[in-house]
Amino acid sequence: MSSIDSAKRVMSGTFGELWWDGELIAECYKFTAKYTQSKEAVNLARELIEDSKVMSTKGTGSMGIYKVYSRFKEYADQVQAGKDPRSTFVSKLDDPDAYGAERVALYNVSLDEVPLVNWERKTIQKDEVPFTFTRHKYMETA
Q: Which residue segments constitute the domains of the chain, with CATH numbers given?
């Protein structure tokens, strides 16, 4: 699509969902995922502008979770037992006024941090959890 017919077509995060190994995470209030590329400088003959070569790529992201219950207990127990649990995340954004829905699966997800305790008086309790992943697949596009 090269243009939109109305501002109502812009997707709202209100309609975002996160599924973790097939389970809807209703308390997720934000979710991001991206690839970051590591590059090495390449200086070509007779070129003033430095170019670069991609040497590796890393999938990273984070999720924001409202504290409702001990969501990370099983994960934390596995970490303490010396295990490296891996999961599949599926993000879905399905605004009814948009041109369509977008669903993206992230595979081989590993949490970088596992929340155990995090609270502050007179505030809504939230955890920000960074993670890495190694593959993605667009399952549905808008």
A: 15-38+51-112+122-140 (2.30.110.40)
